[in-house]
Amino acid sequence: MSEIFKEITDAVMTQNISGAVEKTKEALASGIPALEIVQKGLSEGMKIVGDKFEAGELFLPQIMMSAKAMNNAMELLNPELAKGGASASAGYCLSFVQSGDIHDIGNRLVATMLGANGFTVKVLGVDVDNEVVIEEIKKAPGDKVLLAGSALMTTSMLGQKDLMILINEEGVRGKVKCMFGGAPVSKAWIEEIGADGTAENAAEAVIVARKIMDVETSKVKV
Amino acid sequence: MSYTPKERLYRSLRKMDVDRMPAVCFTQTATVEQMEACGAFWPQANEEPELIAKLAEAGHTVVGYEAVRVPFDITAEAEFFGCKLKAGTREQQPSVIGHVAAMPEDVDKLKNFSFGGTTRVDRIIESVKILKAKYGDEIPIIGSMIGPFSLAQHLNGDDWFMGLMTDDPVVQPLIDMTTDFCIRYAQEMVKAGASCIVIIDPTASYELLGDDFYSKFAIPYHQKIAAAMRAMDALTVLHICGDTTKGIHLMDQAGIDAISVDQKVNIQKAAEASKTAIIIGNLDPVQLMWKGTPDAIKAECANVFEKGSKIVTLGCGTVSATPTENLKAFAEYAKASKY
User: Fold this and answer.
1) Distance from A63 to chain B by nearest Cα, in Å?
2) Dihedral through CA B78, CA B82, CA B83, CA B86, nearest 10?
């Protein structure tokens, strides 16, 4: 059985989109639980890809392809996971760039790495108004949402403060964990606006996200 | 021997003997304080030739830079091809939110472009003419534009990065087309009076692409632009965001005069890695230039100069809230420097 997991892991690692889907089908057909396929096969592959990116061995095109391989395979697994009432997701995440900014690559990387590490990421894109974020928080499934917001310029950074005020006013503070990043964002700023965390880079963002979302302790319900 | 600012910029970028470094910002220069001082404000000052020129000029008249630089954002090029923009505000630049080139057929429809119309690109060219009429050969005019890789990404959208790997049929025609555009746009700016072209290609970052993709999708296209500019004796600066330290030797193959590096770059290693182009940068626009003090700025200028930055300047675009006194501190450092 470990052979098929290795094949799935390798398919994700080598950006083999059709291979990842085929091997996932094969694993399902042989009766392996969907959750196990995710945990021992797909996620393992993405974790290796993420590590290789941080080490400078793989780059953004490969990461995006591997993420696509995983996502395509997940489309097969999601109905199965839903049947068992299980979720393989580490959490639901809304990623967005606060407002007009040419440097949206950082946010995209964070979103990709969070997705690679088991988060279900909805990418809201750039120039996202605070009202849209609030709506998305309200619409989000489950009782806990991770915000991964970026602001690279001063004015958009000030928008984070407005967003925190709005989150409190709209009564959704209990539902969200707020992680903000970007060049001007510091720990002191995060404390000032009452958010939950920040990170220097995409790899650290994953660690911070898992911590503030309590991923290790809540684990996955089967 | 004393030089005009235009001569000094030329000589320092071409590694010729010169008295000192020029006081120049090669990335976005505008700030709210400069807008208030000159009366030309974003967003109108991104639109109208006279106001673009007026705000560019404030870098020289208010801060003391020895150059004037247009424009203040990198979205006019995508707008030129029909991408939807979100409008900018007084403090903020516009941004690209729509994409127009998903397939090779889309590129076919876009490639018969011409200049001389009324688009923002044409109005930026007009602003160069206005500045040239005023400053002649005394103060150099810097024209900046987005690079071919990032423009292709703007036109294509986020799938661009995956397309590089899957050999998507849109990739080659699109980057050929954006390169052609960049060459002709740069030529127009030079004809209008610019003596230095800054190619801003933020997403063609070595940090994101690595050796193979950078070699295949950035170098050949930057080389074409650099060669076209050299044929007109125009100066070229390549600015790419992110930690490009390990990619400097590849960026150097473009044939440009200077590589402008981000504050994340190890300037000493970069200076060692670049054999042809000079390394310029890399003052942190946020923590240092916006949040720091004039004393801290002068100390950091000395630090990056000592480590190998041939022209000490900002590592990325100026934050619009940056105080003028901080910008003056770095300009004063350059003017007091000795090579």
Assistant:
1) 9
2) 100
Query: CA A24, CA B78: separation in Å to the nearest integer?
Result: 40
Chain A to chain B Cβ contacts (< 8 Å): 76
**Residue A82, Cβ density class (10 Å: 0-12 exposed, 13-18 middle, ≥19 buried):** exposed
| Cβ contacts of A108 on chain B, cutoff 8 Å | 158
Q: Which residue does chain A place closest to B284, by CA atoms?
A: A183
Q: Of A16, A54, A58, A59, which to mutate for an interface test with B (greatest number of B Cβ within 10 Å)?
A: A59
State the pLDDT confidence band at A219, using cuts at 50, 70 and 90: very low
pLDDT digits (tens, 9 = 90+) for B288-319: 999 899 999 999 999 999 999 999 999 999 98
Q: H or E segment at B65?
A: none
Between B40-44, B197-201, B238-242, the lowest mean confidence (pLDDT) is in B238-242
Minimum distance, in Å, between the CA of residue B286 and any CA atom of chain A: 6
Q: Which residues of B touch A184 (CB under 8 A)?
A: 286-287, 290, 319
b/e burial code for range B292-321 (CB count within 10 A of at least 16 → b): bebeebeebbeebbeebbbbbbbbbbbbbb
| Rounded mean pLDDT, A160-174 | 95
Mean pLDDT across A102-115: 76
Q: Chain A residue closest to B203 (CA)?
A: A105
List, as ranges, residues 227-266 from B with C-beta within 8 Å of A.
Answer: 241-242, 246
Q: Which residues lie below 8 Å from residue A172, measured CB to CB, with a gap of 6+?
A: A134, A137, A138
What are the residues whose beta carbons fall under 8 Å from the beta carbon of B299, sequence distance 6 or more? Answer: none
Residue B143, strand partner residues? B70, B197
Return d(Cα A147, Cα A47) in angstroms, integer: 21
| Residues B60 and B68 sit within 8 Å (Cβ to Cβ) | yes
Contact at 8 Å (CB) between B210 and A59?
yes
- From B237, B228, B218, select the one nearest B190 (Cα to Cα): B228
Q: What is the pLDDT of residues A56-73, one digit of tens each?
A: 899 989 988 998 898 899
Asked if A132 is an interface residue toward chain B (Cβ–Cβ < 8 A), one would say no
